[in-house]
Design brief:
It is built from nine helices and six strands; from the N terminus they run H-E-H-H-E-E-H-H-E-H-H-E-E-H-H. The strands form two sheets. A four-stranded antiparallel sheet has the order 2-3-5-6, covered by helices on one side. Strands 1-4 form a two-stranded parallel ribbon.
Length: 512
């Protein structure tokens, strides 16, 4: 059908494409922002080792290891097999993580589409047959009737836009940056999911411990109420003493119902994080005593934080994407070069379509220079530059937030360790005092008001102690999350489904 000499268009277009791709692209080249110039996270110096509270959950030794790397599965440091199983299940089933993974794959395919559409010529095959009736007047013959004939044609068409000023390269660069954004959004979803499960398990364990403590306090209060009622019968106490104690019992019952409600909420949240219905999840019951507080706390150097935090990396990729769009908008102001070509044949019969006299070809080149479009292109470039400036500020805000969260976590760990020590001491002293006063009350040497007061003090101290224990675990998880969570050390994918239903539902057998 076509001779080898007719294929010169297909031969030189890829070479020309490669030459143009090596040329410079208009617009600013992206430069990675420098890390903040600081060597510390906090205003004042941190203690290397944190305060301890021996004998209570969360009261073990902890120390910061500067410059240490973070394990990918950092939650395993809590040494809870139940927690490990829960997180593994969540990484297989959490729909938000699955959605982020699908978004990444879509962004990566968009990069492939941009490369195919921007870097390579579009080649298509056209063929057709036309049945026509033409009067002789069409050919300038005044009379002579008309002719009816069929016209067969087939051709290969080539269209290529020369990327002289790099607009196509900037478009591909922007698509790649969007894929990076999706990548780090996936890592952010992974980090958020694992951290939320750890803190959710700690909250569930804390609520269970607080509920258990309240039940014990309620039992003691109920027993004392019964003793007080007996003493009312023999006249050693007043009716006010009885009603006051019963009020205390009722208040503790209200607290107990509140803990039960919050515990249900916490378990429902864990079920949803795992990707299951609350009614079907069968979430493990966690206990603070079964959790181990990590003794070594890695503390990344500040300059590496911007490379570890997924949100900072996503903001940097957004910066790169908007920078590339400035280049695209700039290239749109400059001349646009296009080359088109066609190779084919046309004949009056199908048998002659492939004959030596049916060949046709055409080559055309064009250049278009925008002159006036109502200021549209200039406005688009100014808008792209403003978007880039917005991305710069958003990046700076993200970095500041990242350093704030690390600083907050460090101070929370330091003060939380001290608070647990004090809360543990307060609980012990409150219990000893209450026990002595209750014995004195039974012997008649202490007033009922003293018992009432110290019961309330012990209840407050007990709940505060449990809360302080849970805070140590939660603050530790928050530090790992604030430092980036070690995703860069992970070997497998973030989303690890056992199977995806209808995986090939939207796939087609051909490629366009």
């Amino acid at each position: 059908m076509f001779g080898s000499k007719d294929f010169f268009i297909l031969r030189w277009l890829p070479l020309l494409s490669a030459g143009l791709l090596s040329a410079c692209a208009v617009g600013p080249d992206f430069k990675q922002p420098d890390a903040p110039n600081t060597s510390t996270y906090t205003e004042t110096t941190l203690s290397k080792k944190l305060a301890t509270a021996p004998g209570v959950p969360g009261g073990t030794d902890q120390e910061f290891i500067e410059g240490a790397d973070i394990e990918a599965q950092w939650w395993e440091l809590f040494k809870s097999p139940e927690l490990d199983v829960l997180i593994k299940k969540a990484l297989q089933q959490n729909p938000n993580l699955g959605a982020a993974d699908a978004a990444l794959r879509a962004s990566q395919e968009n990069v492939n589409a941009q490369i195919g559409g921007q870097y390579f010529p579009a080649i298509g095959l056209n063929s057709g047959v036309t049945r026509e009736l033409q009067p002789a007047a069409v050919y300038g013959i005044p009379s002579g009737g008309s002719d009816t004939y069929s016209l067969y044609n087939a051709s290969v068409n080539v269209t290529y836009k020369l990327d002289v000023f790099g607009g196509a390269r900037r478009a591909v660069e922007g698509a790649r940056a969007q894929a990076e954004i999706a990548q780090f959004q996936l890592e952010g979803a992974y980090l958020s999911l694992t951290a939320n499960i750890v803190t959710g398990a700690v909250r569930e364990a804390a609520l269970r411990a607080q509920m258990q403590a309240t039940e014990e306090i309620l039992k003691a209060q109920t027993n004392l109420a019964e003793v007080t009622e007996k003493q009312l019968v023999i006249g050693t106490v007043s009716k006010v003493d009885v009603t006051s104690q019963r009020t205390l019992v009722s208040n503790s019952q209200v607290d107990l119902f509140t803990y039960e409600r919050n515990l249900s909420f916490a378990r429902n949240q864990l079920a949803v994080l795992v990707g299951e219905l609350p009614s079907n999840a069968n979430v493990t019951k966690f206990d603070l005593k079964s959790l181990h507080l990590p003794e070594k706390l890695p503390l990344s150097v500040p300059s590496s934080l911007v490379r570890q935090r997924p949100d900072v990396r996503a903001a940097e990729a957004q910066l790169k994407a908007t920078n590339a769009l400035v280049g695209v908008a700039t290239a749109n102001l400059l001349p646009q070069f296009n080359i088109t070509g066609a190779i084919g044949s046309a004949a009056l019969t199908s048998n002659a379509l492939f004959g030596p006299n049916a060949a046709l070809w055409s080559v055309a080149g064009g250049i278009f220079q925008p002159l006036f479009q109502g200021g549209q292109l200039l406005a688009q470039r100014r808008g792209a530059m403003a978007n880039y400036e917005q991305a710069v500020y958003q990046y700076q805000a993200t970095v500041l937030k990242a350093f704030q969260e690390v600083a907050d976590s460090l101070r929370a760990l330091e003060t939380g360790a001290q608070a647990l020590k004090s809360a543990s001491d307060a609980e012990r002293y409150a219990y000893e005092t209450l026990d002595l006063v209750q014995q004195q009350y039974k012997l008649g040497t202490a007033s009922y008001l003293a018992v009432l007061y110290y019961q309330n003090q012990y209840q407050i101290a007990k709940v505060k102690s449990v809360s302080a224990q849970a805070t140590r675990f939660s603050d530790t998880a928050a530090l790992f999350a604030a430092l980036g969570g070690g995703w860069w050390n992970r070997t497998g994918p973030a989303f690890q489904p056992k199977a995806i239903a209808n995986k090939d539902q939207n796939e087609t057998s051909g490629k366009n």
